[in-house]
Amino acid sequence: MFKGHKVIVIGDAHDSPHIKQDRFKWIGKYIKAAKPDYIIQIGDWASFDSLSFFQKNSTQAGKLKDAYMVDIDSLRASIDIVDKHIDNPRIPRHVTFGNHEQRVYRFEENIPEIAGMMKKELHDTYFKRGWKFSPYGAFKIIGGVSFTHCPLNIMGKEYGGKNCEVQVANDATNDIVFGHTHKFRDWKQAKIGDKNSVRIINVGCALPFGHIEEYAKLNMTGWSWGIVELGIWDNHIQESQFISMDRLEKQYG
Length: 253
Known about the structure:
Order of helices and strands: EHEHHEHHEEEHEEEEEH
Structural class: alpha/beta
Distance between the termini: 34 Å
């Protein structure tokens, strides 16, 4: 009898009031059919462009930003769509907060008079829907495998660059699953010692297929759009499958 864990990981979804939410229905339907033991959303579920530090309020773009509660309402709607189509509240659900959720914390930090008010809206969004969450940079452990939005290095910065998965593997002592770069990669690296190896998986993103965020439209991207199904046992990721958003749409759209 199989004694491992089946985990569905939803990558950076970057929900926004300005992006269609159909993909959340397809993801929910896939999860219902797959019957996983756990659901992980790897962070940056919402973009929170209302709190962007890159678009100053004095600029033209800044003046066109939505209100924070518009972003929150859109986030809540997207979670409700996923949950409705999963149709099974007993499956544990967890979000590892990303740098875009961290925007809420940073914004409050600069305005002491509203301390706790904006975080409460964010936290209640998940609490009231049965989702748990962990802070940006923290690990959620399932079967000996660590899940986080993006591992932080010795300087407290995100691992980055073309081969950040290799850098993470060099420093890791166990298997790690993360997101942040929007590129799916699966890297296994040999180690000296009892564990023998570590496996590092970057889950890509859960934006609509082919969608590139405005800030990256002139960049090299190589983004991957979809979700990831993992099989975990013996303290390692033993199986990994990337399901593209295009396939999800064709199957469940």
